[in-house]
Structure formats: structure tokens, C-alpha cells
Amino acid sequence: MDLSPWRSSRDFRLLWSAGAVTLFGSFLTMVALPLQIKAITGSSLAVGAVGAVELVPLVVCGLWGGALADALDRRALVLWTEIAQGLCTLVLVVDAALPHPVLWPLYVVAALSSAAGALQRPSIDALTPKLVPHEQLTAAASLNSLRWNVGAIVGPVLAGLIATTAGVGVAFDVDLATFAVSALLIARMRPIPAAPGAERASVGSIVEGLRYARSRPDLLGTYAVDLAAMLFAMPVAIFPFLADRLHASWALGLMYGSFAVGSLLVSLTSAWASRIRRHGRMVVVAALGWGVAITGAGLSANVWAVLGCLVVAGAADMISGLFRATLWNGTIPEELRGRLAGVELLSYSVGPQLASVRAGWSAAAFGVRTSVWAGGLACVAGVAALACAFPALWRYDVRTDPHALALAARRPAESATPADDRDLAAEPGVAPA
Q1: What is the DSSP code (8-state) at residue 42?
Q2: Cα–Cα distance between 75 and 338 in angstroms, integer?
Q3: Is 155 helix (H, G, I), strand (E, B) or coil?
Q4: pLDDT per residue over 374-407, tens digit each?
Q5: In terms of C-beta density within 10 A (0-12 exposed, 13-18 middle, 19 or more buried), how is residue 386 classed?
Q6: What are 290-349's pLDDT values in tens digits?
Q7: How far out from the chain centre does Cα 8 lie?
């Protein structure tokens, strides 16, 4: 892997480490929460409804969080929303400790946590171009994906063990502790204030960001492709029921972690990605691969074949995400970066939330395995249609794209990274990596 962003930027290391810690705990809750709802209700519709209650806060707060990221100190915004998510987890801890856990607080926490995460994520995404040089953006995206993948492997597997042996309450306890650690790491970062003369967060500033996105068919293509892939072919919400149908409840944690195994394999060999120039084409091809792999998972009756298909799907999703992030970070002006990060958040988050509802409904109506393979086929058809509808995405080439060339000229490599390690060396008792 290309580790240059880790070596060159102290703040990138702190942000990366905080994300690694909190992701581990969040994946514990990602597994424990649907298990808790399933234990209380026994209904796939009830589990899928989590996506519905998370959707509105995600849409509203995602766009508003993007505007705030351009108008406020991004590091402070990340810190306070991290604390807010920790408080949400505290409610889960208290509810799980009751003799008879109550259902409705789980949905309330899901909605509030979705709101806090949506406010936070645009600032996190917009921080990376401020912390690393322009030529290290692909490497930084790969390192961020590596962090996510390791957490997605370790977290769900441990969650499956913890929730079935010690109880879901213990998983929530660990998640709460991780939020405390990550908040301390973020607090050590330098402030990242808004640019001088930055526009105040308002409906008008959000509209300005949306207008910019609308003017870029290549960006719209990345949003549409990812939305279609997730909406039609993200079966995570019904994994507990798929494990039951395969008579392999022991494999639930492995199902949750399989996507990340494939993603991790790509991350660990991702040096090749920096040599790719047609990023849009890779986004489309990888999304098609995701749909094919999910189709295979739905058609397979053997649990190991299902896990193998999920690994392949995770690898395809990683490739798509890596090149989407590179295209976004390499072409969007800094003064719009936060607001466009809010739009990006919707593109890759609304799909999974709606997918939870779609998967839960179709599993109840047509069967669990049918819900999976039919979604995969719909993904392939949808992505192919979108590739035709957005030819600018297929033609995108970083060597000739005017937006990429203009942004590279504005952010020369020699001035893109502050002297983080020189400053770090001046701190008592701390040595540069």
C-alpha cells in the first residue's frame, strides 16, 4: 500500500485512528441492533423499518452538514457529533439493561444517530483534501477504506460472538467506550477553520452546492450509479433471516464481515489504483460486478458459496468507492467541498437505508433468497442503463478533465501539506511516525 498520507500528516493520522476506533464499535452496534429488534419482534419488516426511520434525518442533516462543513471549523463539528453519537449509544446500553428491553427507543436512537452521523460525515470527507497533498488523494482514500474494512471484518465477527454469548448489551457497552476514545483523538487535532469569507450555512448555500452538482454530469453519474447499486442489491438488513434459511446461524457474523474481506483484499493491493486515469469507467464496471456477485449470493444454497459471493461483492464495492472518492476529491473546488460531500453522503447512504426497506418488504413477500438475487439482477440492469444515460462518467479521464486540471493547479504539491511532522516533533514526548 501507499502509506505516504500517513507519513506526511499528523492530523491525518489522528483522524484515521479516531475513525478506526469508532468504526470498530459502530460495527458491533450494526450487528447487535437488528438482532435486538429481531429478538423482540421476530419480524423482518421490523428490522427493515430501521432504514426507514434513519432516512429522513439522513437526507436533511446530510445536506445541512455539508453546508456547515464549508462554514465552520470542521474538526470541531466532527468532535461534537462524535460525542452526540456516543450519547445515543448510551441510550442503547440503558435499554439493553432493562429486564424487558423496549422496542421504540431503538428506533428513536437509530434516527438520532443517523442525524448526528449525517451532520458529521461531510466534514470528515472534506477534511482529507485539507490534510494531504493532491497527489496523495487516491492513497488517502485507500487508507480510509482499509480502516473501514478492518473494522467491518473484526467488528461484525466479534459482534456475532458477543451478542450470542454475552448479550447485545455488551456490544453496546464496547461501542460506547470506542466513542470516548475517538473523541479524545479528534480533540488532539488542530482546528480546521473555514476559509476566509466562507459563505454562512443556509438554504441558499445548499442550493448553490446542488446547482454545482447538477452542472457536472460526471458527478451526477457517480451518485446515480452508487444509489442504484445500493438500493437494489444491499441485502444487509435481512442477513439474520438469510442465515436462518441456510441453516447457518453461526455464519451471521461472517456474512456481515464478508463484504469487508473483499474490500480489504483490494485495499492491501491498491497501489495499482494510482495509475488508473479513467475513474468513471472503473466506477461503472465495479458496480456491475457488485450486482453480479449479489445475484450469485441469492442463487447459492451453500453458505460457503454465499460467503464467497459476498467477498467478491465487497471487492467490487471497494473499487467503485475508491474511484468515486478520487474523482470527487480531485475535481471539486475547496469552497464547495463540504456541500458536495453532503450530496455524496446522500448518494452512498440513502441507497442502503432504502435498501433495508426494500429487502425487508421483498423478503416478506417473495422469500429471503429471492429478495437477494432479484435485487442483484435489478442492480445490473440499473447500472447499465445509467452508464448510457451519463456518458460523461464513462468518458471521464483525469488527464484531460478541466475540473481536475484546474484543481491540481490550485493545489500544488509543495504547498498542499502543512509541516505536520515538523510541528509534531516540537511536541514534548511525541516522535514523528
Answers
A1: -
A2: 12
A3: helix
A4: 999 999 999 999 999 999 999 988 888 888 888 7
A5: buried
A6: 999 999 999 988 999 999 999 999 999 989 988 888 888 788 887 787 788 888 777 777
A7: 24
**DSSP characters over 355-407:** HHHHHHHHHHHH-HHHHHHHHHHHHHHHHHHHHHH-HHHHH--TTT-HHHHHH
* Cell reading at 207: 442550493
Dihedral sign for Cα atoms in the order 111, 116, 119, 124: negative
Instruction: Report DSSP letters for 53-97, one per residue.
Output: HHHHHHHHHHHHHHHHHHHS-HHHHHHHHHHHHHHHHHHHHHHHT
Contact predicate 260/148, CB 8 Å: yes
Amino acid making up residue 261? V
What does the alpha-carbon distance between residue 112 and residue 109 come to, in Å, rounded to a whole number? 5
pTM above 0.85, yes or no: no
Which amino acid type is present at position 125? D
Longest dimension (CA), the chain: 63
- What distance in Å separates the CA atoms of residue 224 and residue 226, rounded to the nearest whole number? 6
* Cα first-last separation, the chain: 16
Q: Which contacts (CB < 8 Å, 24+ apart) does range 335-338 have? A: 335/70, 335/195, 335/198, 335/199, 336/70, 336/208, 336/209, 336/212, 337/69, 337/70, 337/125, 337/126, 337/129, 338/65, 338/66, 338/67, 338/68, 338/69, 338/70, 338/71, 338/74, 338/122, 338/123, 338/126
Which domains occur in the chain, in start order? 4-193+213-417 (1.20.1250.20)
> What is the identity of the amino acid at 157?
V
Q: Give the residue from 297, 299, 332 showing the smallest Cα distance to 316.
A: 297
What whole-number distance in Å separates Cα of residue 86 and Cα of residue 26? 10
Burial status of residue 211 (CB atoms within 10 A of its CB: 0-12, 13-18, 19 or more): exposed
Residue 346 corresponds to which cell in the numbers above? 446522500
